[in-house]
Design brief:
The complex is a heterodimer of chains A (about 300) and B (about 325). Chain A has about 300 residues and is mostly helical. Chain A is built from twelve helices and no strands. The longest helix of chain B is centred in the middle third of the chain and has 37 residues. Chain B contains 13 helices and no strands. The chains are: A mainly alpha (about 300), B mainly alpha (about 325).
Chain lengths: ~300, ~325
């Protein structure tokens, strides 16, 4: 078990390093010189050269790469080209907003996904099952920003119950989290339903029923528990979806988080901020996936070997 | 993470079935049993499955016509700005209303269909070909090639989808072609995984061994004996991938990072309508409805295809 843990953590580190390098290389080849943008419209050739020196973009690729990686290892993600603020500080200050959105969205997705999946599987073939499956199809096929627009139209514009934009209060978190969570819940609902149906076909279920165990006991103590095991692996994917979705949702609901910062930074070619934001998201994503993998072996002893 | 990917992409075959755990846990509490809803009316039975193919096929067909010849169906020129009719609600003249420039929303939608369909079709094409080749090489050659390619795929998966698409499309420069390439590239891993697991399953079958033992060349085994068995799962993946490509593409244009030119685009139209939500709900609502209708239809067809191709995966 310990050697598995160590191997798993090492491979996560390699993956994070690889992702950092990948993003570094893509951004290195970004068209347009950021120095020209930073120097302003009426910059002379000399001042552009000066800015290039300041930003360090005049150095060869290998040198830039090594200094970037060593910076990352020291927790230094460079300074923003536009605001000159340290990137790490800026992102760290915004991370809680994204984290709370992702976590609440994740809770919405898990609760609605498991609940709907169970109702659907228990009522297999009945109209409620059909209705839930259709709903799931809609959730997985709907652009998150459109669901967000509909939610804003209903709850902010028409009913005026909840604020549409900004972050800070809990009320401002509800709509974005619901939007993010419902879109992500579709795949989980399907997974839970299919996995419940698989387990219901197992022989031990027949045994449990034959020995006279009450149906609720069979369903919730035995079937659901087994059915949730494969669903746990979906959590890693879910977090990825939520992180991707938060970029869109933060922009839509004008929440100042890592995702929106990324979009804004892309617009002005603020490379250190873009790199930093993606690194943040990747590390978070890989960490969650590692945790899911490890907890999986803990929850299901059969795959430990 | 491998298992999670397999589950997320519906690659059920690669997962072992969940077995039974000891059923001797002490009884403490149970959730109340959910009320059982009445059976679906009998007349719905045969009906539903046929309509589930006909309607989405019709939606896709209409949108393909829109994309091919928008001039045939659009009541107005989408670039026509009518200052007399700014922000008009849906009515007899403008069926879906007009936007802030007085352009007809229905015409904009009809002209915008091309972008979304091109996005869906070509992104899947790029992702499927590249991913298929990687999966083929990885699964057939195995050993270090497999290890290297799969680690590369892992690294790619470490960056959440849209984030990578944003960076790639920006690096290539904002245009329809480049957005398609970006969305195609980020979908490579899922095709590679499906192809790889299928190739590994097939190459261990007795008929491949038989082919090898009578001296069939490697290339012939790969292309004549293994590849034909890989088409159907790939086709199902591709159909389902069309929907997600359209979604990612429209997210990019919603963020203003994708297609930046004068051509009407659903995602971009929606992001503009966002500013007029309180006065003109129709500008943002209808493009989203169009995207949803297209993606729902494509996914329904994909599901249907999966049922036909692989009866084992028919659950429910």
């Amino acid at each position: 078990m310990l050697s598995y843990l160590i191997r798993r953590l090492l491979s996560s580190l390699v993956v994070i390093w690889g992702a950092t390098t990948l993003v570094f290389l893509i951004l290195y080849w970004l068209p347009g010189d950021p120095a020209v943008l930073v120097a302003g419209d009426n910059a002379t050739a000399e001042s552009i050269l000066l800015v290039q020196k300041q930003l360090g973009t005049d150095r060869p690729l290998a040198e830039q790469y090594i200094s970037y990686i060593s910076g990352v290892l020291h927790g230094d993600l460079g300074r923003s080209f536009t605001s000159k603020q340290p990137v790490f500080e800026r992102l760290w200050a915004q991370f809680p907003a994204t984290l709370s959105l992702t976590l609440l969205g994740c809770s919405v997705a898990i609760i609605s996904g498991v609940l709907l999946g169970v109702i659907s599987a228990v009522n297999r073939g009945r109209w409620i099952d059909q209705a839930i499956q259709s709903m799931t199809l809609f959730f997985t096929s709907m652009p998150s920003f459109w669901l967000g627009i509909i939610l804003i139209l209903i709850f902010s514009v028409t009913l005026q119950w909840l604020p549409a934009i900004g972050n800070g209060t809990f009320a401002q978190l509800i709509l974005p989290a619901a939007c993010l969570g419902f879109v992500a819940s579709g795949s989980l609902t399907r997974m839970v339903r299919n996995s419940m149906l698989d387990v219901l076909n197992e022989q031990f279920v027949t045994t449990l029923r034959a020995k006279g165990l009450l149906e609720p006991n069979v369903l919730y103590r035995h079937v659901l528990r087994n059915a949730l095991i494969p669903a746990i692996t979906l959590l890693g994917i879910l977090v990825g979806e939520l992180l991707s979705g938060s970029v869109v949702v933060e922009t839509l609901f004008a929440r100042q988080g890592v995702g929106r910062t990324l979009v804004e930074a892309i617009g002005v070619k603020d490379i250190p901020v873009v790199q930093g934001a993606i690194l943040f998201a990747s590390i978070f994503f890989v960490m969650i996936n590692t945790l899911v993998d490890i907890s999986y072996t803990w929850i299901d002893p059969r795959i430990r070997n | 993470m491998d298992r999670a990917i397999d589950i997320a992409i519906g690659n059920v075959g690669a997962l072992e079935a969940p077995g039974s755990l000891p059923a001797s846990a002490p009884r403490k509490w149970t959730l109340p049993q959910l009320r059982r809803w009445p059976q679906r009316p009998a007349w719905l039975h045969g009906w539903a499955s046929e309509w589930a193919v006909l309607i989405p096929a019709l939606v896709v067909a209409v949108l393909v016509v829109c994309a091919a010849a928008p001039g045939l169906l659009a009541p107005f020129d989408p670039t026509d700005m009518d200052v007399e009719a700014i922000l008009q609600a849906p009515g007899a003249q403008h069926l879906l209303g007009t936007d802030q420039f007085g352009r007809d929303v229905l015409s904009l939608l009809i002209y915008g269909a091309r972008q979304s369909l091109l996005m869906g079709a070509f992104a899947v094409f790029i992702g499927g070909i590249l991913g298929g080749l990687i999966g083929l090489a990885s699964g057939y050659i195995g050993s270090y090639v497999d290890a290297v390619l799969m680690r590369a795929i892992d690294i790619k998966l470490a960056v959440p989808g849209i984030l990578l698409a944003i960076v790639v499309s920006t690096a290539l420069g904002a245009s329809l072609t480049n957005t398609i390439i970006a969305v195609g590239l980020i979908s490579v891993p899922r095709y590679a995984r499906v192809m790889r697991s299928q190739v590994i399953t097939i190459k261990n079958r007795p008929f491949v061994e038989a082919a090898r033992s009578i001296g069939t060349s490697q290339a012939a085994i790969l292309f004549k004996h293994i590849l034909p068995h890989c088409w159907s799962p790939m086709l199902v993946m591709a159909t389902l991938g069309v929907g997600s490509s359209i979604l990612i593409g429209s997210s990019l244009s919603f963020l203003g990072l994708g297609i930046i030119d004068d051509r009407p685009d659903w995602g971009f139209l929606l992001s503009q309508g966002r500013s007029y939500l309180s006065v003109a709900w129709w500008i943002a609502t209808f493009p989203g409805l169009a995207i949803t209708a297209l993606v729902v239809s494509v996914n329904l067809l994909g599901d249907e295809l999966r049922h036909h191709v692989d009866p084992q995966k028919r659950v429910g």
